[in-house]
Design goal:
single chain, alpha/beta, Rossmann fold, two-stranded parallel sheet, 11 helices, 12 strands, 40% helix, disordered N terminus, binds NADP nicotinamide-adenine-dinucleotide phosphate
């Protein structure tokens, strides 16, 4: 831990707000933070980086965004070396093996092993290096399959997850177990957030392996280019709450700075903003100006029918937080994908 400013990282091109740029008064009077973001090259990490770059970082914050090129976090020695090198005071832990329904169904073992190793390595290195606060990322898709709705933060461990993604789900649930244990045994402030389905720029737009929205955006793009029908997988009936990556990033900044509970908090739009896959597809069709036929392949799995989550805990803390309207966020994401088609992950 740093009683004063941690040593500056002037040569690191990922450093966006450096302590050296702080006024003396800020150095003396404010708590300096060096924030390490694991998974900084992914969908959520890039959104946080955008906000920080655009001025939403604070003067006492130094941000370091990491990818798997910096260290393989499934490897304990590499993770420990990373913490020794950067000596963070705070960590946002986003790195994970992530994927949509079909990738999860194929690789449950890999999802379990990779995520358990990454989470354990990051949390234990954070503990050993005296990190003040860690915010990790769970997901609403790890909740019990058989449950009452809406789900809330107290229900994570109440029963088995959906069979399609049990590897990912159990690995993510263990973060909450570890957070409680680090708090009880070592008084660590390690907490977690629970986002619903995230989408936005820099998503994985791979049709087979990605999540439903980026997959649909990519399929709509191809259908338009090739003059074919847009085929939606499944019945289109399942419902989801989608959160725009920039809204989630803004909430992450708030959790890092203000949220003081070990227990997780659901970061989601309201229950009234749940949309069906069919409605989501229609929104993409409108955003991309697609004029062709839309079909539904009901031979493909629907996954969990719904996962309606309550955001009332979030609303108690932030009653006035404004989410970007779904259609606007979809339009911005589609426009980015079309403009960056060659570079986008797909
Ligand atoms: N996307 C969603 O809908 C959603 C919903 C709820 C919760 N979440 C959670 O949100 C977090 C961020 O998800 P995301 O959608 O931003 O994921 P993403 O776009 O797939 O990015 C994953 C990130 O993890 C890094 N990573 C993967 N394996 C790694 C390893 N072995 N060592 C070091 N870094 C590794 C990747 O680095 P490279 O770029 O170098 O590969 C990348 O930066 C995850 O914890 C995820 O479980 C996501």
């Amino acid at each position: 831990m740093f009683p004063t400013c941690p040593p500056p990282l002037t040569k690191n091109k990922r450093t966006l707000v450096c302590c050296e740029e702080m006024a003396d008064g800020e150095r003396m009077g404010m708590k300096s933070k060096r924030i390490l973001v694991t998974g900084g090259s992914g969908l959520v990490g890039k959104a946080i980086e955008q906000l920080v770059t655009e001025g939403e970082g604070q003067a006492d914050e130094e941000w370091i965004f990491l990818s798997s090129k910096d260290a393989d976090l499934t490897n304990a020695a590499e993770t420990s070396a990373l913490f020794a090198k950067y000596q963070p005071t705070h960590v946002i832990h986003l790195a994970a093996m992530v994927g949509g329904l079909f990738r999860n169904m194929k690789y449950n073992l890999d999802f379990w092993r990779n995520n358990v190793h990454m989470n354990d390595n990051v949390l234990h290195s954070a503990h050993l290096h005296g990190v003040t606060k860690v915010v990790s990322c769970l997901s609403t898709c790890i909740f019990p399959d058989k449950t009452s709705y809406p789900i809330d933060e107290t229900m994570i461990h109440n029963g088995p997850p959906h069979h399609s993604n049990f590897g990912y789900s159990y690995a993510k649930r263990m973060i909450d177990v570890q957070n409680r244990a680090y708090s009880e045994q070592h008084e660590r402030m390690f907490t977690s957030v629970i986002p619903t389905n995230v989408f936005g720029k820099y998503d994985n737009f791979n049709i087979e392996d990605g999540h439903v929205l980026p997959g649909l955006i990519h399929k709509t793009y191809l259908a338009q280019r090739n003059g074919t029908a847009l085929e939606v997988w499944g019945s289109g009936k399942p419902k989801r709450q989608f959160i725009y990556s920039l809204d989630l990033a803004r909430l992450f900044l708030w959790v890092l700075r203000e949220y003081e509970e070990i227990q997780p908090i659901i970061l989601s739009v309201g229950e009234e903003d749940e949309v069906s896959i069919k409605e989501a597809a229609e929104s993409i069709v409108t955003a991309m100006g697609f004029k062709g036929e839309v079909t539904f392949d009901t031979s493909k799995s629907d996954g969990q029918y719904k996962k309606t989550a309550s955001n009332s805990k979030l609303r108690k803390y932030l009653p006035d937080f404004k989410f970007t309207p779904f259609s606007q966020a979809i339009k911005e994401t589609c426009d980015w994908f079309v403009a960056n088609y060659e570079l986008a992950r797909k």
